[in-house]
């Protein structure tokens, strides 16, 4: 899909000109990227100008919620709760509840037509500690995609690894917390979700990126190359057993079911440092993640010198994805 990349001061004039001549693609939103404005245009657009650059829109933002809602409502007669569509380039990923599952093929075909997608998959959730996706192809078969966010490139196969667009702010927030010269451990690195933003937007000394899933590890290596990142030591293995002790000032625990790894994370802190611990927690026991860290630190003769808890996003009804930032001081 095409777009024009234009400087901010010229963006409004170029936008009006494109709209006036019918060249602007109204299905996609205008967005900002690395100081420039990205204006989506129709595929037929090829008018060159010194005032902008024609580029490939690798991270389009569609007006998908309104349009997807209309498609589902038109076919099923209503719009069910928890129906959702995510678009990665020209690949769509749908979630549908059981109440409309018998319409899945028709919905997928209409979505593919409406968004000009090469393929549409049904997301049937994740399973296991490795968070392996379960996907059903409904239209086409393309599954290899590339996403750009916060100046970082992520290449992955949606049938092999997971990718959460909703964590974009948290990735950058964590990166901005890293101080100059810090050693970082990413215990559940995946394809580089936290490792790449941290190393691209901070001056960390190095990062140990540990990943158990060999498919995710393969994309981690590829994404490190794509982003030109050098100061990362990738490790294929179980972080419970391969994380070195006293090796870091900051440990990232980006897996939402990793309470059994808190001891390993504390052991990895060299004297004093930070742990960023993620968990999916019911609202009624919202402070449970903090209590877990306090208990584990106490059992290791360490203490929590500073702690805060923040909501990352809704995970499911009455369940939040939260992150605890805990400064650990070893006695």
Q: How are the secondary structure elements laid out?
A:
Blueprint: E1 2-7, H1 8-20, E2 31-33, E3 36-40, E4 53-56, H2 64-76, E5 84-88, E6 91-95, H3 104-115, E7 119-127, E8 132-139, E9 144-149, E10 152-157, H4 168-177, E11 183-186, H5 195-201, E12 206-211, H6 214-226, E13 232-236, H7 239-242, E14 248-253, H8 262-268, E15 269-282, H9 288-299, E16 302-316, E17 319-330
Parallel strand pairs: 6-7, 11-12, 11-14, 12-13, 14-15
Antiparallel strand pairs: 1-3, 1-4, 2-3, 5-6, 7-8, 9-10, 15-17, 16-17
What does this structure look like?
The protein has 331 residues and is an alpha/beta fold. The protein has three domains: 55 residues, Alpha-Beta Plaits, CATH 3.30.70; 79 residues, Met-10+ protein-like domains (GMP Synthetase, Chain A, domain 3); 165 residues, Rossmann fold (3-Layer(aba) Sandwich). The chain has nine helices and 17 strands. A hairpin with a 2-residue loop joins β9 and β10. The termini are far apart.
- Fill in the CATH topology of the largest domain: Rossmann fold
CATH superfamily of the largest domain: Vaccinia Virus protein VP39
Total number of domains: 3
Major sheet description = 7 strands, mixed
Spatial shape:
globular
The radius of gyration is 22 Å
Indicate the mean pLDDT: 92
- Widest sheet: strand order? 13-12-11-14-15-17-16
Order of helices and strands: EHEEEHEEHEEEEHEHEHEHEHEHEE
CATH C-level label of the largest domain: Alpha Beta
Beta fraction of the residues? 35-45%
Low-confidence stretches: none
Supply the CATH architecture of the largest domain. Answer: 3-Layer(aba) Sandwich
Helical residue percent band: 25-40%
Q: How many strand segments?
A: 17
Q: What is the terminal-to-terminal distance?
A: 56 Å
Total helices: the number is 9
